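B., you asked whether I could sanity-check this one before it goes into the benchmark set. Here's the sequence:
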Amino acid sequence: MESLSTTELILIRITGEDRPGLTASITEALAKYDTTILDIGQADIHNTLSLGILFKSDERNSGFIMKELLFKATSLGVTIHFFPISVEEYEDWVKMQGKNRYILTLLGRKLSAMQIAAVTRILAEQGMNIDAIKRLTGRIPLDETKGNIRACIEFSVRGTPKDRQQMQEQLMILARELQMDFSFQLDNMYRRMRRLICFDMDSTLIETEVIDELAIRAGVGEQVKEITERAMRGEIDFTESFRERVALLKGLDVSVMREIAENLPITEGVDRLMYVLKRYGYKIAILSGGFTYFGRYLQDKYGIDYVYANELEIVDDKLTGNYLGDVVDGKRKAELLRLIAQVEKVDIAQTIAVGDGANDLPMLGIAGLGIAFHAKPKVVANAKQSINTIGLDGVLYFLGFKDSYLDEQGKL
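And here's what the prediction gave me:
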C-alpha cells in the first residue's frame, strides 16, 4: 500500500477548444500510471473547455506523468497547467465538503453583469464560496424585442451565511432595484425530490380575480374590486371581505359563470408549467379563495389532481348571495396543503406553494418552497422566493429544470 511519504497530489487544469475524446485521452494517460482520481470537474462555455483533475500518484511517476500529459496537450491543441497540492491543503478541502450547500437561482427577462456582480458580492460578504455556475435557460436571442425571453443562472454555493436574514433582505432589495428574481434554497435531498405543488388560482393561474369578473356582470364591479384589493393587501379580514362581496352578487344568472370560465385569461407560462409538472409526476392542487366552478374548469383543462375553493349557493339558476361550507381562507389553505401532503405521503419539505395574496402567506410559509408570484408588496416582503419578472413557468427554474430537458419534450 502507498504511504503518504511516497504519494504526490497534483491538480491539472486544461483549457482550450473542446472536442470529442479529449477527457478520454487525458484520463487514459493517467491510467497508465495507476493514478487515483480524487476530484474532477469540467465546464464548457461556447465550445471552450475548462477541465480540472486532482489525482494521487506515486511520486516516482510524477515526472513521467507530466511529460506524457504535456505531449497529449500539444497533440490535442489545449493548454495544461500543473499544481502540486500538499496533504494539508487536501485535508482542508475535504473539511470544506461538510459545509452547507445552497442553490442560488437568478431569473429575469435578461441578466446583466451588474446584476450578477451585485448578487455575487453579497455572497462574498457573507463568507460564501461559489462552487459551480450553470445556465438553465437556452441560448439568449440577440434581438431583445422578441417575446417570452427568459434568462436563468444557477449558482451552487458552499458555506454558512454570516447573517441569513440580512442576506435575504439584501437580495430582495436587489431584486426590486435591478428587476430580477431570485431563489435561495438549501441544497438537500428534499430540494431534489419535490412532489406536491399547490397554486392559488386568481391572479396566479389566471390573470384576473373571478369575483371581480362576476361583479362587473352584476353591475357592482367597483364596489367588489375595492373590497378585493383591500383583502389581498391584508388590510381587512379575508372571510369578512368574502362574505361582503358574495352578497353583492345576488341575482346573477349562472350562465355568466360559464361565459367567464370559457374566456379566463390564463397566466403566461401556465401551459408549459402544467405540461412539465404532469410529465414528471408532480401532484398538483388548486387551493383558492375563489370559486370551485372555475377551479374545476382549470382542473379539466390541465389534469389537476385536487381543487379546494368556495362553493356559491345557486337556486333556480341564480346566485343567492350566499356560499356553502367554510371559506377557504389563508389558514384553511395551509391546512389543506398539510392534508394533501399526508394523503400523498409527501414530506412537507417536498411541497411547493405559489400565490400572490396575503391569504396565501400561511401556505407559502409552511411549504418546503414558497413562491410569491407577481405578488402584493406585503407578500413579497414575507416570502423567501418571488417571481415578478416572467411568467409562471419561472417556477420550473427554481425546481432546477433546464430548458435542454424541456426541449426534449418539445415544450420550450
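One thing to flag: The chain has a mean pLDDT of 90. Otherwise nothing jumped out at me.
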